[in-house]
Write a structure and sequence with these properties.
Elements: E1 2-8, E2 11-17, E3 22-28, H1 41-54, H2 71-80, E4 89-90, H3 91-97, H4 104-112, E5 125-126, H5 139-148
Parallel strand pairs: 4-5
Antiparallel strand pairs: 1-2, 2-3
Amino acid sequence: MDIAYIKTPIGVIEFVGDGESITKLDLFEDKTYFENENLPQYILDCKKQLLQYFSGKRKTFDLKLKPKGTDFQLKVWNELLKIPYGETVSYSDIAKNIGKPKASRAVGSAVNKNPIFIIIPCHRVIGKNGSLVGFAYGLDKKEYLLNLEK
């Protein structure tokens, strides 16, 4: 398992990989960490691309991802990858797009369990009425990410 960290405007992001793919991103308000000097290339690429994203220079990610979840969760997360930079969709839009139009709540649960936030852009999913709802790291972080993409 490979682990690395970057300091961002929303906190310290920890990213975890399995030797070839990113498997998890996590966010900490304040975390003391020691930087590993011998990081594999895929981790260095993730670090670089996240820093470019936060500086406004990157709108899409080109990384190998391997989130762990149920078949339903993976289907939802794959749908999240289709949401363009700077755009938002509702939970019901996602439910319709995956062929489960009555599964908005289940979609919400899957979005909330997304292990690779930002790269799999769960922050781009909002309430049907346009309200900011449901972000595991707090609505202030979701609002920051959406404003960054405007």
